[in-house]
Amino acid sequence: MRRQIKTVGVCGAGGTMGAGIALVSARAGFLTISYDRSGESLERAAKESAVFLGRSVERGKLKPETRDGILAVMSQTTDIGDLESCDLVVEAVFEDLGIKRDLLKRLGSVCAENAIFASNTSTLSITEIAAGSIRPERVVGMHFCLPAQLMKLIEMSPGILTSEEVFKTAWEWTEACGQAPVKTEDKPGFILNALLVPFNNDAIRAVEAGVASAADIDTAIKVGLGYKMGPLELVDLVGLDTQIRLCEAFYPITLDPRAAAPPLLRRMVAAGLLGRKSGRGFFSYDGNAMFGA
């Protein structure tokens, strides 16, 4: 597998998810090129990644020379043409079908014919995304969990036209990165978001209805159900604006009223309360570092 995939590109790497995926790839020893249209976002992501790896060294989880080796295989670019040499490109851009299709079309004209394109979509159809590519058989779903550099699970989803060889190679790459892939069908929300988007919205509506405070709702879920993180804490981590985008992508497909964005969520985003990245959401945070530090 490593002979087939040597260089990995990550699109949208200036964001939290994309930056985490780039770390996963580089940590496994793959040459990793982070692409984003915003040079400022890329610079911030690179600094946060270095800080994250530095803290791993401080905690004894990583040797200094290993950290240096990871950073050495990472590079950043705002020129999509620099992804020409990539064997695998993972897109982690906005959850918008048009944006993802347009990106795949551009990548198809840049990358080699045998390159694999993976979408980190968490709600959209892989088959519909792949329709924007000139090589839809080489497009596969690869949904990482946030934060990607810490969470092992990856939902792997083939589209209708995805070739078995492409799916197998992409699966083996995730395993080479030390991740834990599971196969899902090309269904709305796959496994996690089909369950989590409505569930998180229910927790938001409970706050809105005055059932209990955000802290008490999260405590009830963690203590009563054994979850490591409460739903409102998770929404803060993901980003309240991202939760809205998930709702707007998921609801039209499913028409599940529980998947519609709660009014409270929209009001909080309008007020700039985005969660960890803004320093305040359902809870308040001392900092707004990309990886939640």
Short summary:
The chain is an alpha/beta fold and 293 residues long.
Structural commentary:
The structure is a single chain. The protein is of the alpha/beta class and 293 residues long. It has 2 domains: 7-183, 3-Layer(aba) Sandwich (Rossmann fold), CATH 3.40.50.720; 192-278, N-(1-d-carboxylethyl)-l-norvaline Dehydrogenase, domain 2. It is 45% helix and 13% strand. It has helices at residues 16-27, 39-58, 64-72, 97-110, 126-130, 164-176, 192-208, 214-225, 231-238, 240-254, 263-270, and strands at 7-11, 31-35, 74-77, 88-91, 116-119, 139-144, 153-158, 180-183. An 8-stranded mixed sheet has the order 3-2-1-4-5-6-7-8, with helices on both faces. Helix 1 crosses helix 2, helix 7 packs across helix 9 (231-238) and helix 9 crosses helix 10 (240-254). The longest helix has 20 residues, at 39-58.
